[in-house]
Amino acid sequence: MEEKLGQEPLNLIKIVLFGPESTGKTTLAAELAEHYHTEWVPEYAREYLQDKWDREQKTCEPKDLVPIAYGQMELENHLAKTANKVLICDTDLLETKVYSEAYYTGTCDPILEKYALKNSYDLYLLTYIDTPWVADDLRDKPDERERMYAYFKESLEKYHRNFIILKGDKAARLKKATEHIDKLLQNMIALSPKDLEQLDSKGISKEKVARQIETFKEGIPFVKLKKAAVVGNGILRFSDKEQNDLIQYFEDHRGTLDLLKFVPASGAASRMFKAMFNFLDSFDPSKESLSEYIGRTGDKDAQKFVNQMDNFPFYELIMERIKGKVGNKDEEAYLFVKEMLVEDGLNYGFYPKGLLPFHKYDSGSATPFEEHLKEAALYAKTSGKANLHFTVSEQHDDMFAEEESKVAPKISKLTDTEFDITYSNQKPSTDTIAVGLDNQPFKNGDGSILFRPGGHGALIENLNDQDADIIFIKNIDNVVIDKNLEQVANSKKMLAGVLTKVQDKAFGYAKLLDTDEVSVAKADEIKVFLEKDLNVRMPKNYDDLDVDEQLSILKDRLNRPIRICGMVKNEGEPGGGPFWIEDADGNVSLQIIESAQIDMTDPEQEAILKNSTHFNPVDLVCGVRNYRGEKYNLLDYVDEKQGFITSKTQEGKELKALELPGLWNGGMAYWNTLFVEVPLVTFNPVKTVNDLLKPSHQA
Length: 699
Fold this sequence. Notes:
Blueprint: E1 13-18, H1 25-35, E2 40-41, H2 44-56, H3 65-80, E3 86-89, H4 93-103, H5 110-118, E4 123-127, H6 145-158, E5 163-166, H7 170-186, H8 193-202, H9 206-218, E6 224-228, E7 230-231, E8 234-236, H10 240-253, E9 259-264, H11 274-282, H12 290-297, H13 300-307, H14 315-321, H15 329-341, E10 359-361, E11 364-366, H16 368-379, E12 381-382, E13 385-391, H17 397-415, E14 418-424, E15 432-433, E16 451-452, H18 459-464, E17 470-474, H19 485-513, H20 520-533, H21 547-558, E18 562-569, E19 577-582, E20 588-593, H22 603-610, E21 614-615, E22 619-623, E23 644-650, E24 653-659, E25 672-677
Parallel strand pairs: 1-3, 1-4, 2-3, 4-5, 7-8, 8-25, 9-13, 9-17, 13-14, 18-25
Antiparallel strand pairs: 6-19, 10-11, 12-13, 15-16, 17-22, 18-21, 18-22, 19-20, 23-24
Helix pairs in contact: 4-5, 4-6, 10-19, 11-15, 16-17, 16-19, 19-21, 20-21
Domain DUF4301: 194-698
Pfam families: AAA_28 (PF13521), DUF4301 (PF14134)
Protein name: DUF4301 family protein
């Protein structure tokens, strides 16, 4: 039954009339339908509630909203089948959600809310309150039109809906509406019923595909760096005493908090062993010596690997496996690498990185998976229980389950911790469409549309499925040996203390703003908090706005997820960095930016990059709930314009592919952000197998 609240897949442009009572929506809906020779979907609630009034002389009650939603979507899906390219909707479920929250103490039925946010439309026409109030049996709040208009507008902004505001007389409204709808029609993609079935099977909306193709057409501009974030201007640095106070603040509160550790672990280790695969392909010990090979190729990676082979955590295992097969030292090196990588050997080159032996202890070797459990027991545990979530590739599900069965009981006993471990795979709905050089969908030989994995930015969907007061995020390969565990754990607790402290204050202000009893002085205080403590920059015209508009902006900026990002001093490692950037509308914000997003042909931009002092080790502590304990929809805070377009070939044809905004880059662009300096010991990534030879990985 629930699925009847969803939309049926049809190649239509869907327009929604959106706004308070008596603002001309129905009149305009009929005019637009006539203009485009198409169908318009009336407001089912009017029929339903008029019948209720006639029978009971009662207006709408909370119990009526879900039946109204079912009736509305049944009507929409029925009329969509006979619509001509455009479907005009006099309302949608998001409007029902707004009324539910505005009229019934801020609540909304979970099923109604789910589909109000899931169903998608190409354009919302927000009708202003400059039309005369016309009373009838059902309209009952003529004095609250201004408040309701603000609420409608806030909802469209909050959920990042594409909308325009319509003011003036009928002719002016119709003219502006048709101008915008005509643009949508010009960019409409030709999708066959088979194409729509394919989209539906992957859970990808037609509107999402249209937005991605528009991105291909427009291109993705470079970001505009304003300046590097440095200590004192964008990056916080705390003294030892301040760090201890923050750790204590977290410890004092953690008993009442839901904690979760989120570990992106989808990557295979093939790139980690790239140099050693090349070594296998290029070196033949029967034809030349190892020193001759090194001299011929200058292969320093292979030289380092062979010289320190006995320091790898898997050395003894491999030596035992090749025992009796080795004729000399050069052959030993070759057979060692072969046994490590090939399919009928250990097959490490195709292992998930999280399940490789990383550290060697007296008790045996340990994988990153095991090391993450040890960490979680120190800082992500409440009442003896630690929750972890790993994003893994589907083909590795069984391997992770097997590793958990082996090591979780051992670490549980060692740390006196009960582990609740869950997993997820990257969703097919996060794949992105590929296009030809003409920006039309690229078709495979069988006629299907080519979709490609969207990159690690797709994991924002997996993160969005998690719910906790505090979520710790750390990459699978960034683990430490036991002697450094306490220092790393204290750094994480310190970041959690920063989050808990600033979030407590933000929650207090957000709650106050919801009372609508905020003095000018208190509003100024909230603005200072946002700017000073949360690095929020107000719109340039903020001071020119009226009080209600200012309060609306304060409310919007406060009610966002918060991320505290650890930053380490830049010592030449690759990775994104912290910068102040300015968007196309002149809004300034604090962001993590990759070098590929920067125009290196611009000397000014290049100079800002070179002046950066820190980089991002992917060490995040996140708050994803509002003050009422409700989880934010994290997909509403993604900047789709921070993705990447790359050139590829498929079946001998050139195409363009789209990589989604990175999880901690554009994927979190509209979060409130704080950067905090953390010690270098917290950053120990293993990008190549030789990174395991660094002191930080030698137990």
